[in-house]
C-alpha cells in the first residue's frame, strides 16, 4: 500500500495555524535524556513519524519511552547498552545524536550509521574528530560508528563548518567530560540553544549558547528534567511561504518570529505584509500577500542565514513570482534535485552548480511529481496549490516525517488536498 496526495490547484490559503515543537529539536532532546538516569519529560512534541522512530532507537539501548499526544516520557536506566543498531537508525539522520550521549555516559558506543533525507553527502568526520579531541577513538566499522575512551577530557575543538549535528554530539559528550571544552565555529541554530537549555536544566555548565563559541565545563553527573520544545521555525516558515505563494492571509502561532527574521524580511521584499507578535502568551506572525509576489534572491547558509531546509519553498515562490530569482545552495549539493520536479509543473528553472535561476511564470500546471525529502515534498504541495489542475505528489511518507497534520491544516486554511491510498506505486 502506498499513499500520494492529490493537490487541487487554485487555492488562496487563509486563516490561522498553530505550530508545535521543532522536529530538529525534539529528536536531539530525546537523545539528551540518555545522559541522566531517571525519567525525563518532553512537552510540545510534534506528532510526526520521526518521534516514534527515535523512541525505538532509545528503546534499543534500554530506555522505556512513552508517547502520549505531545508528551514524550523517557525513562533511562542506570545500566544502558552502548550498542544502538536497530532498523530505526537507518530511517532518520537524528539517530546519530545518541553517539555523543552514549560516549559521554558509557565511554563507548557502537552506533549504526544514520539514514535520513537524500539531500547530498552527509559525512560524520566532524562528529568523529570532535570525539577524538575529547579522548575517544572513533572509526567506522561494519556500518557503525565505533567510539571508545578510557575517560573523556576537555579540549579545544574547531569545527570546519558550523555543523548542527556535530555541535550537538560533541556538546553531549563534553557535558560529562573532565575539564573544560571549547567548541569554536559551533552551530548557532535556535535548536542548539534549546538543547543547551535542557542540558543546563539537567545540571550541565554551558556558556555561549547561540554564539559560535560554546564553552562546556564538564560535570560528574546530570539529572533528568522536564522541558518544552521550542516551536518549529521551519514549519512556521513553511506556512509563511504558503501564504506568499498562494497570495493568502495566514496567522501562524507557536513560533518565535525572531527565529524567522531573515525569512520574513525576504517575504516582505516579495511584497508580503507581515506583522509579528511575541510575548509570553502568544508568539507568531500574520502574513498577507495581496498581489503576485516580486522575485527575490535567496542564499542558503547556516543560521542566522537563510535555512537550506527552506530552499524548496524559495524555489516554489520564485516559480510564480514576477521576475527572475537567483537561488544559491551552500549547504547540500543535491537539494536542487527538487527543481526537476518543479520543471514538471511548468517552472522555468535551471541549475548550474550550486546556483539556480528561476524565471517566474504566471501559472504552473499540474503533473505527477515525486518528493525526494521532507521539505521538497512540502514544497511540491505548495507549488501544486498554484498549478492548474490536480497535482499528484508521490512518496509523501517524507512529508509525514516532518509535518504534523499537514493535509488537515492545509484543508482548514482553504486548500483542497486529498490523501489517497493505492496498491501500486506510480513510477
Ligand atoms: N558536514 C560534514 N561533516 C560532518 C557533518 C556535516 O561535512 O561531520 C556537512 C554536511 O555534509 C553539510 C553541512 O556540513 O554539507 C551541514 O550539515 P549539518 O551537520 O549542519 O546538518 P545535520 O545536523 O546533518 C541538520 C538538520 C537538517 C538541516 C541541517 C542544516 C536534523 C535532524 N537535521 O542536519 O534538517 O538541513 O541541519 O541546517 O537536525 C530537515 O529537517 O529536513 C533537514 C534535512
Calculate the terminal CA-CA distance, rounded to whole Å.
14 Å
Q: Specify the overall morphology.
A: globular
The number of E-state strands comes to 26
Mean pLDDT: 95
Percent range of helical residues: 25-40%
Q: What topology, given as strand order, has the largest sheet?
A: 23-25-1-26
CA radius of gyration: 21 Å
Structural class, by secondary structure, is alpha/beta
Describe this structure in words.
By secondary structure, the protein is α/β, with parallel strands linked by helices. The chain contains 13 helices and 26 strands. A hairpin with a 2-residue loop joins β20 and β21 (355-359). α4 (125-133) packs parallel to α5 and α5 runs parallel beside α6. The model has no long low-confidence stretch (mean pLDDT 95). The structure holds uridine-diphosphate-2(N-acetylglucosaminyl) butyric acid. Uridine-diphosphate-2(N-acetylglucosaminyl) butyric acid binds next to α1, α4, α5 and α11.
Topology, pairings included?
Blueprint: E1 2-8, E2 14-18, H1 23-32, E3 38-43, H2 50-60, E4 64-68, E5 71-76, E6 83-84, H3 99-106, E7 108-112, H4 125-133, E8 137-141, E9 144-148, E10 156-158, H5 164-174, E11 180-184, H6 190-201, E12 205-207, E13 213-217, E14 226-228, H7 233-245, E15 249-253, H8 261-269, E16 273-278, E17 283-288, E18 298-299, H9 311-319, E19 324-328, H10 337-344, E20 348-352, E21 355-359, E22 364-365, E23 368-370, H11 374-385, E24 387-388, E25 390-394, H12 397-400, H13 406-412, E26 417-422
The structure holds uridine-diphosphate-2(N-acetylglucosaminyl) butyric acid.
Amino acid at each position: 500500500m502506498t499513499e500520494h496526495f492529490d493537490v487541487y490547484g487554485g487555492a488562496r490559503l487563509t486563516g490561522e495555524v498553530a505550530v508545535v515543537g521543532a522536529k530538529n529539536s525534539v529528536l536531539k532532546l530525546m537523545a539528551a535524556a540518555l545522559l541522566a538516569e531517571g525519567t525525563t519529560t518532553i512537552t510540545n512534541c510534534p506528532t510526526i513519524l520521526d518521534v516514534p522512530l527515535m523512541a525505538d532507537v532509545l528503546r534499543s539501548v534500554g530506555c522505556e519511552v512513552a508517547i502520549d499526544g505531545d508528551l514524550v516520557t523517557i525513562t533511562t536506566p542506570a545500566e544502558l547498552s552502548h550498542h544502538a543498531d536497530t532498523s530505526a537508525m537507518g530511517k532518520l539522520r537524528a539517530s546519530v545524536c545518541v553517539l555523543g550521549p552514549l560516549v559521554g555516559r558509557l565511554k563507548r558506543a557502537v552506533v549504526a550509521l544514520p539514514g535520513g533525507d537524500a539531500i547530498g553527502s552527509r559525512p560524520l568526520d566532524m562528529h568523529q574528530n570532535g570525539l577524538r579531541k575529547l579522548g575517544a577513538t572513533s572509526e567506522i566499522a561494519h556500518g557503525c560508528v565505533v567510539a571508545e575512551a578510557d575517560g573523556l577530557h576537555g579540549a579545544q575543538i574547531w569545527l570546519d563548518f558550523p555543523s548542527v549535528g556535530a555541535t550537538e554530539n560533541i556538546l553531549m559528550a563534553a557535558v560529562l567530560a573532565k575539564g573544560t571544552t571549547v567548541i569554536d565555529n559551533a552551530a548557532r541554530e535556535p535548536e542548539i540553544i534549546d538543547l543547551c537549555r535542557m542540558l543546563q536544566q539537567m545540571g550541565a555548565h554551558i556558556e555561549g549558547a547561540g554564539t559560535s563559541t560554546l564553552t562546556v565545563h564538564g560535570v560528574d553527573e546530570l539529572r533528568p528534567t522536564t522541558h518544552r520544545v521550542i516551536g518549529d521555525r521551519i514549519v512556521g516558515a513553511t506556512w509563511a511561504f504558503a501564504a506568499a505563494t498562494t497570495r493568502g492571509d495566514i496567522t501562524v502561532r507557536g513560533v518565535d518570529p525572531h527565529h524567522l527574521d531573515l525569512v520574513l524580511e525576504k517575504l516582505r521584499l516579495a511584497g508580503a505584509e507581515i506583522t509579528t507578535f511575541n510575548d509570553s502568551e502568544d508568539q507568531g506572525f500574520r502574513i498577507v500577500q495581496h498581489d503576485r509576489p516580486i522575485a527575490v534572491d535567496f542564499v542558503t547558509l547556516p543560521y542566522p542565514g537563510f535555512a537550506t531546509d527552506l530552499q524548496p519553498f524559495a524555489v516554489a515562490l520564485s516559480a510564480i513570482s514576477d521576475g527572475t530569482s537567483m537561488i544559491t545552495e551552500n549547504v547540500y549539493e543535491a537539494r536542487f534535485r527538487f527543481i526537476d520536479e518543479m520543471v514538471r509543473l511548468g517552472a522555468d528553472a535551471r541549475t548550474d552548480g550550486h546556483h539556480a535561476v528561476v524565471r517566474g511564470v504566471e501559472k504552473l500546471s499540474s503533473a505527477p511529481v515525486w518528493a525526494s525529502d521532507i521539505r521538497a515534498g512540502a514544497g511540491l504541495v505548495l507549488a501544486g496549490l498554484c498549478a492548474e489542475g490536480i497535482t499528484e505528489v508521490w512518496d509523501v511518507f517524507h512529508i509525514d516525517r516532518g509535518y504534523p497534520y499537514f493535509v488537515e491544516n492545509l484543508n482548514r486554511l482553504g486548500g483542497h488536498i486529498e490523501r489517497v491510498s493505492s496498491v501500486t506505486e506510480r513510477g
